[in-house]
């Protein structure tokens, strides 16, 4: 069909709006990237606002020679891989039974899970619980307390309900397949898009989180990368309150390292997303159209 004048007008307005939104999203990323390789003095003075000026890689060189950054990277990769794996297993094991209409008590269990979305024990009881389990200052304190997200359980349960026909599970049962075999042979292969979405959600959460590490860890050898990034940011804010020539030099060095650290800390996720994008879009739209 030939587009009408109204269609062309709508497309033009949509293009302008999306271009404006894209610029708002991309500008901070471009600015941080440019600031990380620009002369920090020009950045502090506000002379660098988009393109790199007086290019220098001093910030990245200092980061690559910083032992704490390498330790943080190692720990964060471990937390992301092990945490995301545990998250996915726990989410699937909870969402699959709740998606089965023949599962007795699924309404009560769902209500119990939903209750935790509105109420929780709070910081002090959580700390006392972790302490009583002897997980303080251990890797388990970062992985176990956030082993599963109720919201992601609900998302996956809804996806399995609408994306896996009950007749398929019934035919598998008639062929003598048990629930576990049906899960591994039928449900999981057909649920790769929503699983990819869950992997992305959990990986981003595990990569960015630092509060649990701040509360439960005091051994720097177990710190994630985000805690070292926080130290750099706090150090920069402290230096900005001081005066003197030496302090100004510290401010400029910290400014350069701060932007470089932001790029280094977020680069793996920016690289990961394009590989999961097609699954992400498909997984989000699962269940949006019925029929």
Describe the structure.
The protein is mostly helical and 291 residues long. 75% of the residues lie in helices and 0% in strands. It contains 14 helices and no strands. It has helices at 5-36, 40-45, 58-64, 67-99, 106-118, 123-132, 140-143, 150-163, 166-174, 179-190, 192-208, 211-216, 225-239, 245-285. Helix 4 runs antiparallel to helix 11 (192-208) and helix 4 (67-99) packs across helix 13. The longest helix is centred in the C-terminal third of the chain and has 41 residues, at 245-285. Mean pLDDT is 81; it is low at 241-246 and 287-291.
Task: Based on the model shown, name its key terms.
291 residues; mainly alpha; 14 helices; globular
Query: Mind describing the biggest β-sheet?
Result: none
Overall shape: globular
Quaternary arrangement of the chains shown?
A: single chain
Give the end-to-end Cα distance, rounded to a whole number of Å.
25 Å
Strand elements, count:
0
What is the N-to-C order of secondary-structure elements (H for helix, E for strand)? Answer: HHHHHHHHHHHHHH
Helical content, roughly?
over 70%
Instruction: Give the count of helical stretches.
Output: 14
CA radius of gyration is 24 Å
Low-confidence stretches: 241-246, 287-291
Structural class: mainly alpha
Q: Can you give the mean pLDDT?
A: 81
């Amino acid at each position: 069909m030939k587009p009408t004048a109204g269609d062309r007008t709508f497309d033009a307005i949509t293009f302008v709006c999306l271009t404006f939104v894209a610029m708002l999203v991309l500008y901070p990323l471009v600015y941080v990237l440019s600031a990380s390789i620009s002369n920090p003095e020009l950045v502090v003075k506000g002379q660098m606002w988009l393109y790199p000026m007086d290019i220098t890689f001093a910030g990245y060189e200092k980061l690559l020679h910083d032992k704490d950054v390498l330790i943080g990277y190692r720990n964060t990769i471990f937390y992301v891989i092990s945490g995301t794996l545990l998250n996915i297993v726990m989410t699937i094991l909870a969402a699959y039974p709740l998606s089965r209409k023949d599962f007795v008590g699924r309404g009560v269990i769902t209500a119990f899970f939903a209750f935790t979305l509105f109420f929780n024990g709070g910081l002090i009881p959580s700390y006392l619980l972790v302490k009583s389990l002897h997980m303080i200052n251990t890797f388990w304190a970062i992985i176990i307390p956030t082993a599963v997200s109720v919201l992601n359980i609900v998302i996956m349960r809804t996806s399995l309900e609408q994306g896996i026909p009950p007749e398929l599970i019934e035919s598998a049962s008639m062929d003598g397949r048990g629930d576990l075999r049906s899960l591994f042979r039928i449900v999981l292969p057909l649920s790769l898009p929503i699983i990819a979405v869950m992997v992305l959600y959990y990986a981003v959460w595990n990569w960015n989180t630092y509060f649990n590490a701040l509360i439960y860890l005091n051994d720097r050898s177990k710190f994630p990368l985000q805690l070292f990034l926080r130290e750099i940011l706090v150090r920069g804010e402290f230096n900005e309150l001081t005066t003197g020539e030496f302090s100004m030099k510290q401010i400029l060095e910290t400014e350069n390292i701060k932007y470089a650290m932001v790029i280094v800390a977020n680069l793996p996720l920016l690289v990961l997303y394009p590989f999961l994008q097609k699954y992400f879009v498909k997984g989000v739209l699962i269940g949006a159209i019925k029929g």
